[in-house]
Specification:
The chain is α/β, with parallel strands linked by helices. The protein has a single domain, classed as Alpha/Beta hydrolase fold, catalytic domain (Rossmann fold). Helices cover 44% and strands 9% of the residues. It has helices spanning 11-23, 29-32, 55-61, 79-84, 93-103, 109-116, 122-148, 176-181, 187-193, 199-218, 248-254; strands at residues 68-74, 152-158, 232-236, 241-244. The protein has a four-stranded mixed beta sheet, with helices on both faces. Helix 6 runs antiparallel to helix 11. It is globular and about 50 Å long. The model has no long low-confidence stretch (mean pLDDT 90).
Length: 266
């Protein structure tokens, strides 16, 4: 599907085209390199004009000033992609080796991941490194870089798992969207949180909405700011708590390895 002007195109056709493109990404590894392994075909492009460099690099170099920042991720980010692709429960040791080789920080990231998770199954390793590389570590490192640049960062992790589909989805990617917008009864909301939503889901949704409103109006969402020493993070769960950053092993693995743009060749 080639589209020059999307204004007159049925949104469903755009969604179908994007789904098809994303599903076919692995076929273009020779051209698109690491990007072909992400499952996400659309992303910002560092073109030197509209986007001159990544935010992590700009903050670390002093070319961007720190700001008030609210940033977070879910605990089981990659689970959604495992379920939607039909791969949940089928990942092999070869899949784990590929995921670690492509996404773990070089040169020893794969070995460090295996050492940090000695009893992890192939599927657990795949989900952990994908979740870290694509979502969790970029969020954490943005909070760190913004704080170092003089800004105030507030970090959260959604730990409350989805009760839908028997809990298989866990705290997956996109689960925070209906929670933050209060759209629990939308088709997407019902698919992710179930119908009717549990009291725990409603409570976390209310907390996340209130945090967004407080942050927008006062600059503080209601928990302590992140700092390098204490690493305080709001963990949203049935009983939410403010704790040191929970993905400690991954934080250590990625220390000193900031996100870099994806090249279009392997």
């Amino acid at each position: 599907m080639c589209i020059r002007d999307s204004r007159d195109v049925d949104p469903r056709r755009l969604a179908e085209g994007l789904t098809s493109l994303s599903a076919g990404l692995p076929d273009y590894h020779d051209r698109w390199g690491r990007l072909s392994r992400t499952g996400v075909a659309i992303c910002p492009v560092v073109d030197g004009d509209v986007i001159a460099e990544t935010p992590w690099a700009a903050l670390a170099s002093g070319r961007a000033s720190g700001i008030e920042l609210l940033v977070g991720h879910t605990r089981d980010e990659f689970r959604l992609f495992s379920v939607m692709s039909g791969r949940l429960g089928t990942f092999t040791d070869r899949d784990a080796r590929t995921a670690l080789d492509v996404f773990a920080p070089a040169p020893h990231g794969a070995d460090v991941y295996r050492a940090a998770h000695p009893r992890a199954s192939a599927e657990e390793l795949v989900e952990t490194v994908y979740s870290d590389a694509l979502f969790r570590m970029p969020s954490l490192q943005l909070a760190q870089a913004n704080t170092a640049a003089g800004g105030t960062s507030f970090l959260f992790e959604l730990r409350l798992g989805s009760p839908a589909t028997g809990g298989v989805l866990g705290a997956c990617h996109s689960l925070d969207v209906p929670l933050a917008f209060g759209t629990l009864d939308s088709p997407t909301g019902r698919g992710l949180v179930g119908a009717p939503p549990t009291p725990e889901v409603v409570a976390v949704s209310r907390e996340l909405q209130q945090a967004w409103v407080r942050f927008a109006t006062t600059g503080a969402p209601g928990w302590a700011a992140y700092c390098r020493d204490r690493q305080l993070t709001r963990v949203l769960d049935a009983e939410s708590k403010t704790l040191p950053y929970p993905e400690h092993a991954s934080r250590l693995i990625w220390e000193g390895h900031t996100p870099t743009p994806y090249d279009l060749t392997s």
